[in-house]
Amino acid sequence: MIIKDTTLLSFSNLSIRENTDVLIEGNRIAKIGEGLCKGEQLYSGHEVINGRGLYLIPGLVNAHAHTGMTLLRGAAEDIKIDDWFNKYIWIYEQNLTPDDVYFGTLLGAAEMLLSGVTLVADHYFFMDRAWQAYKDIGIRADLSWALFGTGDNWQAKYRQTLDFTEKHLNRDPRLTISLGPHSPYICSDDFLKECVKQAEALKVKLHIHVSEEKNQVSRSLEERGKTPVEVLHSTGILRPGTILAHAYYATDEDLGLIKQSGAGVAHCAKTYLKFGDLHDFLPRALATGINLAFGTDGPCSNNTMNIFEVARDAALLAKSSVQDAESAAIKNLLPLLSGGGRVLGLPAYGEIIQGSPADLVLIDPASPNMQPEHNIFANILYSLGQRNIHTVIVDGKVVVSNGKLVNFPLAGGMAELYNEIAKIKNRITRAGRGGPMQSY
Ligand SMILES: [Zn+2]
Hints:
Blueprint: E1 2-10, E2 15-25, E3 28-33, E4 48-50, E5 55-58, E6 60-65, H1 81-92, H2 98-114, E7 117-124, H3 127-137, E8 140-147, H4 154-168, E9 175-181, H5 189-202, E10 205-210, H6 214-224, H7 228-235, E11 243-246, H8 252-261, E12 264-267, H9 269-274, H10 281-288, E13 291-294, H11 307-322, H12 330-338, H13 340-343, E14 360-363, H14 376-382, E15 389-394, E16 397-401, E17 404-405, H15 413-428
Helix pairs in contact: 2-3, 2-15, 11-12
The protein binds zinc ion.
């Protein structure tokens, strides 16, 4: 495949390279240059995408999501975080079936691809069914089955997760597996250590929530004499390639530990904004220089799976948190859009260079919200909408063309999916309302 005569944008140094051709061989970028197509017999026979008038950017990374929670979009609004968990989410989620997660994941993956996300780190339940949804739709994903290490029957569930991990490891190079202990506020020190031991034995990474809100830090200090990040440090969870979801209330010392460890943080700005939780995490994290990327969290708190929207919210949240318009500048935030690869331990991911994975997005700026172009990078951060996503390539294959999904796995298309989702929605919010945390 060759993308002809396009304009390359780099988010790492905000550079613009016009009139460029990008040759893709298999699932990698093979060559980048001017005039690769001119009279070259060598490249005849390649599928040609005309990139004139379009901008080529690396595929975006959603570094922390609960994709199946698309099923709960809009189901718990205008409430505090404790009620959100205890009165809604943990009750509704007990009604989820494996097939529900298949359809919910398909819905979220469709939304991500259509908004330019090529790689998602998903932390949820019934990940064997999520795996199938990602396989079917063609997005790249890292899957963690949420582990609690507590509650009824937790050993059997842990065994089931390890079986899933062993069975699906290396089955498809596009789909990787990590272990997903939920958080230090649910998992004991012993269970966290056990997860580290298993991750080493299986040669997989870890994905965990930490320091999402202020009370978690004070409770941890009272109960364990350590911040939640210090708990992860002392149990061995903090290590290269570990995805830390949130770390929003990480102290300066915690940020130092995270930096030393090589772990990365998924910043989910819209979730904090919705809970009315204004805090200066991002300016401090940027100053520390830790590995950072954006995450959507679940669509029940974030409402969309759109990473451009999270980046925009992150900029506004950061500026407001320190009341400084110069904070969280475009040049500091856009690299986080393509920096997810480092957070997931995939350093070549997110760069358009020879040999890097062919996960790419073409942006079409021909819409009123993107004109004029004083500063294309400002337009991307503050003005871009889903309609500007023209083409999406994952693993060397076109998965979105002209703003439409190319291969959708259900015979009845999106209409069939919406129909299934509507049925699930009615069932999970009605049936079997028990107490929270009953069956984890
Ligand atoms: Zn989360």
